[in-house]
Amino acid sequence: MKLRHEVLKSDVEAALQVLNFAIYHKELTEMEEREQREMEMKQQAALPPAMEKFDVTPSPAPAAGQPRALPLTFYDLVFLAIPPVQRLFFYDRADLLDVSDFTLGELPRFRDSLAAALHHFYPLAGKLTCELVDEEAAAPPKGPRDQGAPGGGGGIEGAWSAGWMEQPSREPASQGPPG
User: Fold this and answer.
1) Which of 132, 134, 142, 140 is nearest to 165 (CA)?
2) Which PANTHER family does its entry note (predicted)?
3) pTM exceeding 0.85
4) How far apart are alpha carbons 33 and 43 in whole angstroms?
């Protein structure tokens, strides 16, 4: 009988330890959640208030004779492997006196400009298309970087001749068999 009493006592002590740990864990979790909410509230209070929120849609389609996409040039190759910049920079202007001047003058121009840009660049989201051109007539002049020079890459020539349908290779141009 005494042995059974000690077993029950140890079981009760173990159960109390588990219960105490569960209570401690719950209190700790609640405290962390409360601290997280307080931190989020402080961050939101530090942000300037949003004055206006709106959606900008692409401008209407161009007329039948206008191109539906902007053509890429040879100089755009540099930016094909770089992710797009998603920043908008604002600069001080001496002639803007207050916020209402900005919202009445500059902000509508930003909206119109963004709508026009979305019309042209929305199809480029993840896809680059262009018209295939004659390789001989449109190929750029070969420079030392296109001819397999150290650090060069035949990727520029490859992208141009492929009609820009694929991203240029990052591998250096092959020098041919040694000899």
Assistant:
1) 132
2) PTHR31625
3) no
4) 15
Cβ count near 139 (within 10 Å): 14
d(CA 133, CA 131): 6
Provide the CA 78 distance to its chain's centre, in angstroms. 18
CA dist., res. 138 & res. 42, Å (int): 58
At 112-148, the pLDDT tens digits run: 887 777 776 655 443 444 444 555 555 555 544 444 4
Q: Please give the structure tokens belonging to residue 111.
A: 């909206």
What are the extents of the domains in the chain? 8-48, 56-61+98-126
Q: How many CA atoms, within 13 angstroms, populate the side-chain half-sphere of residue 120?
A: 11
